[in-house]
Amino acid sequence: MTRESTNRKPSWLGYGACALAGCLWGTGFYFGKLALKEMGVGHMVLYRFFFACLGMLPMSMTARGRKGPRWTRRETTTLLIAATLGIPLQFLLQFEGLARTTVSHAALMVGTMPVLLALGATIFAGERLDAIGWLALAGSTVGAALIVLGGRTAETAGGPSLAGDLLVVLSLVIALGWVLMNKSLMHVHSPLTVTAYGIFSGTAMLAVWVVAVDGPPPVARVSMTAWLALAASGVLCTAMTTALWNWGIHHVPASRAGVFLNIEPALGSWLGVQLLGDKLGPFAWVGGGLILAAAVTLTARGHEREPEVILE
């Protein structure tokens, strides 16, 4: 085996890991919708992160085995704030939105995340957004507005709704703060350590809130289908995607890897249409196209960016 083929192998494996992470993220809303048929939003999200913690245990033990810089009080406070934003607030709002809209609408709205990240980096991290970037941002905004307007007239139960779509968008704005805080922590600590500590602490806060508001989560009334959906959403769509994504962006440029984030809204909306019978109106199709085009434009232009941890 030549040196050139040896150097290419990690690169192709890195792209493969990012692509697989994008595919698994794309199934998250589908699994969530299956579980929501048998329980409320709070209990569903709590079970998802319970399984995510189980999936993170091997990675967290690896992180503890590595010596790193000590956590300062300020860093610990930032981690806890980020965990609060990223898990209880973001996911409860996001899946409350999913409960009020369709998988396809929710998935297409998530396609605005790369654009929101670019805007957040411009405002808070001092990065510059050129004319094409601002045009992509405008196109994505118009696309999101078209999807929201397309869901406003829904009258059937389980159909898209304005409230549901807007809750998903609000959750993405909160997720932006989570990502930017995590990014600042990863300048000092490893991505695996930040991710593991964030998931464990965020899940603990989530458990306190859900049990206090909704009571203990159901066990006996949950079907095997729901259990499998919850386990898949926690282990595959949260823990494994984090490991795959973090490994992938250490072997390929993060700017190019970012294009694989766009698999999530595309696959998620397709699953909603094919498996759950979702209906996408003309506004939603046009809006989804604008969002995906804007996301691909921003993430495929070859600008190097720092690796980021994003969980869906």
What would the keywords be for this entry?
312 residues; mainly alpha; 13 helices; globular
Task: Tell me what the structure shows.
- This protein is mainly α and 312 residues long.
- The protein has one domain.
- Helices cover 76% and strands 0% of the residues.
- Helix 5 runs antiparallel to helix 12 and helix 6 (113-124) crosses helix 8.
- The longest helix is centred in the N-terminal third of the chain and has 28 residues, at 73-100.
- It is globular.
- It starts with a helix and ends in a 13-residue tail after the last helix.
Radius of gyration, CA atoms, in whole angstroms: 19 Å
Largest β-sheet summary: none
- Percent of sequence in beta strands: under 5%
Structural class comes to: mainly alpha
Number of E-state strands: 0
Measured between the Cα atoms of the first and last residue, the distance is 38 Å
Number of domains: 1
**Mean pLDDT figure:** 79
SSE layout and pairing:
Blueprint: H1 3-26, H2 28-36, H3 41-65, H4 73-100, H5 103-110, H6 113-124, H7 131-151, H8 162-185, H9 191-214, H10 224-248, H11 254-257, H12 263-276, H13 282-299
Helix pairs in contact: 1-10, 1-12, 2-10, 3-9, 3-10, 4-8, 4-9, 5-8, 5-12, 6-7, 6-8, 6-13, 7-13
Give a brief description:
Helices cover 76% and strands 0% of the residues.
